[in-house]
UniProtKB/TrEMBL annotation:
Region annotation Disordered: where it falls in the sequence: 322-342
Alphabetized Pfam families for the sequence: ATPase
UniProt-listed Gene3D superfamilies: P-loop containing nucleotide triphosphate hydrolases
InterPro entries associated with the record: KaiC-like_dom, KaiC_dom, P-loop_NTPase
Keywords: ATP-binding, Nucleotide-binding
UniProt protein name: Circadian clock protein KaiC
Superkingdom, natural source: Archaea
Native organism taxonomy: Archaea, Methanobacteriati, Methanobacteriota, Stenosarchaea group, Methanomicrobia
Residue ranges of domain KaiC in the record: 5-241
Record-level Gene Ontology MF annotations: ATP binding
Organism: Methanolobus halotolerans
Amino acid sequence: MNKEVRIPTGISGLDRVIEGGVRDNTTLLVVGSSGTGKSTFAMQYLTYGLEHGENALYISMEEPPEQIMREARMLGFNLDKYYEKELFFFHSKGKDFVKLVDEQLPALVEANKNYSVKTRVVIDPLTPLIWSVNDKQEQREIITKLFYTMKQLGPVLITTEEHAAPGETIGEDVLIPIYMSDGAVHLTYRPIGGAFNRALEIVKMRATRHGEEVYPYIFVRGIGVVVRTTPLISAEDMRKYDDLFDQAIRTAADLGANETVLERLAYVKENWSYPFSPKETLQIFFESQGFTDALTREEIARRKEESMPSDVQLDIGELSANGSAEITEDIPEEKNADAEEEGLIEIDDLRELEEMIQ
């Protein structure tokens, strides 16, 4: 199966932890309080598209085009040369925005159907719309229509200002757009070393393996936002746990796991992107399926001999009462003590389990 093509955001460092970029025809929401650099993210995203042969649409409900381009120049982005050629603006306020969503944007989408050039869209910010509609249901309907319409043009980046109450991770006022978007990035001020520095977290990114850490970022004139990240896992290390997964799959099959369980294990193998071993994760999964350290040699032999149907569930309570010979009995005593203390067997034991079955 071919890997889905990703569209780079142009935001330095961010693409490294979202599999190379965003998917086409999706919405990426950038959420943050005032001063976190949301507009800089938007300008950088839009500029990258223009510099790589795309068209761009900038929808603003606060600043006119002249002010946006002036601010872009201060950051080192020259949007003037693209103005009204590849770059177009919609400047809308208040109730006009509802008309924009209902009439003007659908007409633009229809007019662009015959063009092969991709259009990168920025809505900066969405906040006035959120504040102008008090009814949550109406707010959701307008945002849904806006997102659906814009995604037909190309990848969309939307900024939204949040006003989180003390103790809140994410403000309540942005929950609807976060829920409706395909991806969401949260920008915050964080105290690091006594100073307030900016940091980025990826709240969600549908159909994408993404970083789950907190990433500091800085502003560099001429470049824009630079997110300080490292790859989740190198290309060389991507498949280093394959043997462990294969061992687990073989063991699960010998223990009578059905096709669904085996397919799930294979899927986890293909999508494991963490830099640490999957041992504990596999152990917990085995326990959830009834393959625990309470399995006796006799039970394993019986199941193999009788070829138990895959839809027969194992009664863990019954197994626990069956005898004392557990699959960890040949492991050195010190290791057994650790396993009992943690309530887990080491995945290293899977090889011994295979040998018992054979």
